Amino acid sequence: MDHFIYRDGVLHAEDVPLTEIAAQVGTPFYVYSAATLLRHFQVFDESLAWGEHLVCFAMKSLSNVAVLKMLGQAGAGIDVVSIGEYLRAKAAGVSGDKIVFSGVAKTREEMKIALEGGIRQFNVESEPELEVLSEVALSLGKVAPITVRVNPDVDAKTHAKIATGKKENKFGIPISRAREVYARAAELKGLDVVGIDVHIGSQLTDLEPFRLAYRKVAELTEVLREDGHNIRRLDLGGGLGIPYTRSNEAPPLPVELGQVIREEVGHLGCEVEIEPGRLIAGNAGQLVSEVIYVKEGEDRRFLILDAAMNDLVRPSMYDAHHDIDPVIEAEPGVEPETYDVVGGICETGDTFAKGRNLPPLKAGDLVSFRSAGAYGAVMASEYNSRPLVPEVLVQGDKFAVIRRRPTYEEMIARDIVPEWL
Ligand code: LLP
């Protein structure tokens, strides 16, 4: 469920017409609905209400400090994968004991900053990382709380670029080697082993892979406890998929995932963490863009927008589908036209959709990409020297720019011309 709806023929985010934001902010822009973000966080929170838990928002999906602050105030923890993300979470007022640090490439410097600033746990992804983290913690006179991310070799049945739980993926340690890795972790004086971590991929639309992975984690918990480890926390990752179309696509709901978690690991008495990103942010955000030209090709019609693949890369990168809606609703009975929807970047990959049926549109009309709140703004770049687009947060009838559009001068001023030129 989201709060993007037509009222009086105009697409609104909550109570704010997107036309009003466009007039003030210019296009393209990302717009997020606070009510949708909070609602999505709450459904996860409620889905685990049967036990001790923390829902850690995977901020890689949407990392604006205003959004993090709002979710943090609602009680969310945060899953970070770099010290940049850690510092954003801190800037949003989230305390270290609610931040979990994942990722395969943590550096000494990153570990140091997190240990000094406070951290709930590091999700360690390899044996060398264990050794380095222990060393860094000891050098600071600290002990680092850790889980080890295990790779359960489960097929998540999702896009190859976002599956993480197969043995050929770079993530975690093979679950078959977990006992020896935990034995080593227990020897290291700078570490406190608190639990197990698993994450098998993103945009999962079937609960079975989750169930298989969690079952393996439950078995491992018992084995590790027998080995003498005090396993008291399970980080079960993120990955629940969202509907990207209005068809009858209906991925499982958070409450159903919560039930699977309860069935598979509920008996262990562990505190449960999950790290959802996409389901919280995806349908809480849209990218609004203006039609620049309608161009008649030889055998097709192109809808050329002021947004491009640098602003929303998912269609080019993963062949992802995003529904596109006109901001002014079509009159009933209007025959749709078929468009290839493209941006202005100088490569053919800059195509948002091929053969898409939309009401007839002309230059100056606004369109909105649905489901763009997750992995939208965060993956944007300035390719073709197009400044990053602004982000806007709507709450009820008010809205605020939560990241402004840089000026061209600001963008250019980041380059430094050496004096010898
Ligand atoms: N935890 C870990 C360790 C992760 O690697 C991820 C996502 C998540 C949690 C959150 O997963 P979610 O609930 O959002 O599915 N850029 C891609 C998605 C990459 C996902 C990477 N990891 C896309 O646009 O589809």
Question: Which terms summarize this structure?
Answer:
alpha/beta; 9-stranded mixed β-sheet; 8-stranded parallel barrel; globular; binds ligand LLP
Detailed description of the structure:
The protein has 421 residues and is of the alpha/beta class. 28% of the residues lie in helices and 25% in strands. The protein contains twelve helices and 21 strands. The chain has helices spanning 18-25, 34-47, 65-73, 83-91, 108-117, 127-139, 178-187, 208-226, 254-265, 278-281, 314-318, 408-413; strands spanning 4-7, 10-13, 16-17, 29-33, 53-58, 77-80, 99-101, 121-124, 144-151, 173-174, 191-197, 233-235, 271-274, 285-296, 301-305, 324-326, 337-342, 351-358, 366-369, 391-395, 398-403. Strands 4, 14, 15, 16, 17, 18, 19, 20 and 21 form a nine-stranded mixed beta sheet that branches. The protein has an eight-stranded parallel barrel with strand order 5-6-7-8-9-11-12-13, surrounded by five helices. A three-stranded antiparallel beta sheet has the order 1-2-3. Strand 6 (77-80), helix 4 and strand 7 (99-101) form a beta-alpha-beta unit. The structure holds ligand LLP. Ligand LLP is lined by residues 58, 60-61, 79, 102, 162, 164, 199, 202-203, 237-240, 275-279, 314, 318, 374-375.
